[in-house]
Amino acid sequence: MAGLYIHIPFCRHKCHYCNFHFSTSLKSIAGMLSSIKAEIALRSRELHGERIETIYFGGGTPSLIGVNEIEKILTTIRSNYILSKDVEISIEINPEDVTNERVACWKSMGINRASVGVQSFSDSDLLWMNRKHSGEQAIESIKVLKEQGFKKLSIDLIYGIPTSEKSTFRSNIKKAIDLEVGHISAYMLTVEPNTALDHLIQKNKCKEMDEELVLEQFVYLKRELEAEGFEQYELSSFAKADHRSRHNTSYWQFIPYLGFGPSAHSFTPGEPAIRRWNVSSNSAYIKGIESGLDYFEEEKLEARDIYNEYIMTSLRTWQGIDLSFVKARFDKSYVDYLVSSLNRAIEKEQIVFKNNHYHLHRNALMKADSVIADLFVV
Prior knowledge:
CATH superfamily of the largest domain: Aldolase class I
Largest sheet: 9 strands, mixed
Number of domains: 2
Structural class: alpha/beta
CATH topology of the largest domain: TIM Barrel
Strand order of the largest sheet: 7-8-6-5-4-3-2-1-9
Low-confidence stretches: none
Order of helices and strands: EHEHEHEHHEHEHHEEHEEEHEHHHEEH
Strand content: 15-25%
Number of strands: 14
Distance between the termini: 31 Å
CATH architecture of the largest domain: Alpha-Beta Barrel
């Protein structure tokens, strides 16, 4: 099995917190889509006939481009790859792009999962983030998707917004629950370098994140969603039964995937495993595809890289660290180092052992990155 990711690197505007690769200039859309389709066909033999289980349109804003262009990309995929009968095809959507006609077209071409970039149902929050939809548009977009038969729906929410009242955040969670979506991706607002938010904070035009507020909102979020039957199957991902993202889960299970478009990543397991990433430049990507020049870089992963990636993905997910897997996959020096590191983390109440696996302690969920980094082999 394998997955495909298609990066659509265009947005109508730039959100203050975003550091993903995209352009607000839409002049090169035609050339970009042509190049993405060419790359899809060009790399069709890399998976050696593996059946495609998941396809994910991300960005950027995939819902920005015409439905006919999405269909052409899917046609190219179907012409060059073997798709599973129950393939999961996801698309990221901005609420302002949702219409009955568009949703009907997405569904007719086989897209069966939608991820809606809500972020907040509060208009003041949305204005602060420089989002262009309203809270009411977000609610209406979800209703339209459900009315058109989309059963697998996810929404993105952001917590830790410094200007947001406690009551506003709690209202966001209640509205998300009332809308009866099966999946919620909840992200802590982070200040990424060179974003508009970073510049605003540096110029004292915006206050920094309040750690106590972030922790309080995370605890509330987790408690309320779990009470409604959601499982936190990854640090930022909550899902009801049978609503996990199969595509994202494949990333955490070392399943091969190909990424198409600028800045998209690929991974192929094996001896050695290979990680590959396309250039983060629209013009350089198009030029590379058209001229046959290199438009990507790649690296062969050593045992240390695979080990560190396993530690990171396993502790971020519901699975946890399986020591028997580490013993089977890596030499004794890695096992000894891990056991010693885990014992120290258990003493600090950062790691807990249950069901024969090691998991993040609930006290460490908000500092997961530093706890995980302490277990890495450097």
